[in-house]
Amino acid sequence: MKAHQTIRALALASAAWSGVAALPVFAQDSAPQASADDDGAAIVVTARRREETLVSVPIAVSAFSGEALERGGAIDITDLANVTPNTTLEASRGTNSTLTAFIRGVGQQDPVSGFEQGVGIYLDDVYLNRPQGALLDIYDVERIEVLRGPQGTLYGRNTIGGAVKYVTKLLPQDFSLKVKGTYGSYDQADGIVTVSAPIGDLIRVGGAFARLSRGGFGTNLTTGQENYNKDIWAGRATAEMGGYGEPVLVRITGDYTKDKSNPRGGHRLIPGQASGAPVLDDVFDTRGGLVDPRQQVKSYGLSMNISAELNDMFTLKSISAWRKDDSASPIDFDALPAVDVDVPAFYRNEQLSQEFQLQVDAGPLKGMIGFYYLDASADTQFDTRIFTTLAGLTAFTQADVDTETYAIFGDFTYDFSDQFSVSAGGRYTWDERTADILRQSYVGGGSPVFGGAGLPLGAPSTDFRGSAKYKKFTPRFSVSYKPTPDHNIYASYSKGFKGGGFDPRGVGTNAPDLNGDGIRQESEIASFLSFRPEQVDSYEVGYKGNFMDGALYVAVAGFYADYKDVQIPGSVACTVLVSGVPTPSFCGVVSNAGKARFKGLEFESNARLGRDLLSSGDRLNLSTAIGYIDAEYREYIANIGNVPTDVAQHRRVQNTPKWTASGSLSYTTPVGDGSLFMGSTLSWRSKTYQFEIPNPYIDQKGYALWDASIVYTAPDDRWSLGVHGKNILDKEYKTSGYTFVAADPVTGAIINNAAGFPTPSLGREGTLTAFYGNPRQVFVTGTVKF
């Protein structure tokens, strides 16, 4: 049996074996969950895979309890970006379920196979390998933690930019039933049922089931479909054995999400250059005519999380998981009825992972060592239909990219005294990436995969199969000085790493003939399609402190990062040789920008401004979060006219505004035997570049958002009623876009045609389309507990 087959078999078998082994002993006290009272004190997180107060952790981390998120009307994890420094979380263009995530300038925008995200998303400690299905709706959540900076010594997969930990609630020991309903603008109608019941003294079963729906913010004027609607069914079922004082806890969870929302059509920012189609008045309206395949995203998985206290010193944990997601998406780039720059696409992802942790608590020495294995496949099929040329030209691409990775990692802290401690950790990663890429041109219609009747035109422009291996050791060090238990001054260094791979959209026939023999060798094609690993050296100094018996919490962090070989995937108009004829088409282009430098500051605070102000027991709180980052490329080599050219001064770091800031003012007061909460959040982001090349059409200038909530909670928390407003001032702001217009290859300046509009680089109409954040939404929520 091959080594990877052996590991795969062990990963599958370990969960079953561990579960059987655990039954006689039954586990541990249920772990304390991250929480914060209204005073901001006693915040507990598991950022270092053990329970610690937020002040004690020498890591920049923001923690949000499920109760606070629910009280503030949070809808999905993108809401966290408004109140977290130097963080961008947003829907990725055409769907509600695909996530784009950046932290401190590190991330990945393109959801195509072959690229892993720079920010790790963890669902109950299970790493989500692909962005499809990773935009998680918030329901039945215990807490969410956002960790900034590389975390490779603490988490199963490399997390070069940071990590978002989504932790669901443990099942209660007694029967529990909770029903939550929401109704609001745009016919928003959500229903969530959470139920749990004990079976004997040691076993509990339960689940949360959600129906999330909303009408569209606009209309597709060609198809008549609602645009930006939401149509999601989701559920999570859990069985737990042990916990609550036992030495072993076994938690088995299955989850399923089906998103049947319509495709999100973009808003054209320029008139049609051939049809003269005008720019629509409503930014949420679109005119894209592509309807196949019918949009649908399904994601589901099964995990087993086992924790066993071996003795007072050692705890063994096993995290076994299998996940799969399938997406069908009709992507109409130019957002017009004509079949031109239309891309029907399938994405199919599957992963199997196994993680073991041995946690150590030996007095002054605390920490963990771990092993991680991931076997993942990411398969993509799509047409690029340019039917206005060559009697209907289609470039069909099928890319299957497999990842197999192993890692050993560890992180330990030694307390030399109550005031001084040192942490050290390391990770060794082995990655193997295998790619099978086929690109075939068709004429007279689309490819057979999408029901087209096109005929193959010549030989494939890419017919490649290859693999590459990457390995890297990445260390982490930190020192902490705590003059008192309520104050922590720390400094840290960490190295992040993300493996390379192959561009699944690359065109092999465009590979340069490096040895000049007139033949494109496999090695030359592999070199052309491949991209190098990226790595970052991150330095951080910070302070965390509680004042006035927890009435004021303050966290300040300064960071500096050297980022090398930055992976920048993109898609551009290009020329492809088809049967010896230069033909306009769509190509993938991956750059390894040589050097980037990020430096910045972050400030977070939670202050109790007063208590017993208007009535006995009331509280007034203010939470703030401010982020500043100076992000720039120091070297960015582009191949322009076959001449390597440094264009760094003309490139910008995408999805990374220089400033992010928020302030949340809340007031809680007793009303009868219940309580009334009133809260308001104002957040601001400075100018954001959507891509590395500045684009005055789709880049978003600075903007502010205002949210507010009023929630009444009855005595004993039996029921609650709330009113929530999101984007109350109805601010119009862009979150992403597509561009296929001619530009200067060095400066990126857009080249206008004789009519004064950007010149199309692919298709006839010119593609400059934008996607927008949600408009004003007002909704009412009601919750009943039995």
Describe it for me?
- This protein is mostly beta strands.
- The protein contains 3 helices and 42 strands.
- The strands form 8 sheets. It has a 22-stranded antiparallel beta barrel.
- The radius of gyration is 26 Å and the shape is globular.
- Mean pLDDT is 89; it is low at 1-41.
Specify the helix fraction band. under 10%
Note the beta-strand portion: over 45%
Overall morphology: globular
Structural class: mainly beta
Using only CA atoms, what is the Rg?
26 Å
Number of helices: 3
Termini Cα gap:
53 Å
Strand runs, count? 42
Give start-end ranges of low-pLDDT stretches: 1-41
> What's the main sheet like?
22 strands, antiparallel, barrel
Question: Averaging pLDDT over every residue, what do you get?
Answer: 89
Show the helix and strand layout.
Elements: H1 3-22, E1 44-45, E2 52-53, E3 61-65, H2 66-71, E4 87-91, E5 99-103, E6 106-108, E7 119-123, E8 126-127, E9 141-148, E10 162-168, E11 176-184, E12 188-199, E13 203-214, E14 218-219, E15 226-227, E16 230-242, E17 248-259, E18 267-268, E19 296-309, E20 314-332, E21 340-362, E22 365-386, E23 393-415, E24 420-443, E25 455-456, E26 462-484, E27 487-498, E28 501-502, H3 522-529, E29 530-531, E30 534-547, E31 552-578, E32 581-611, E33 619-635, E34 637-640, E35 643-646, E36 659-671, E37 674-685, E38 703-713, E39 719-726, E40 734-740, E41 767-772, E42 777-785
Parallel strand pairs: 7-10
Antiparallel strand pairs: 1-2, 3-9, 4-5, 5-6, 7-8, 9-10, 11-12, 11-42, 12-13, 13-16, 14-15, 16-17, 17-19, 18-41, 19-20, 20-21, 21-22, 22-23, 23-24, 24-25, 24-26, 26-27, 27-30, 28-29, 30-31, 31-32, 32-33, 33-36, 34-35, 36-37, 37-38, 38-39, 39-42, 40-41
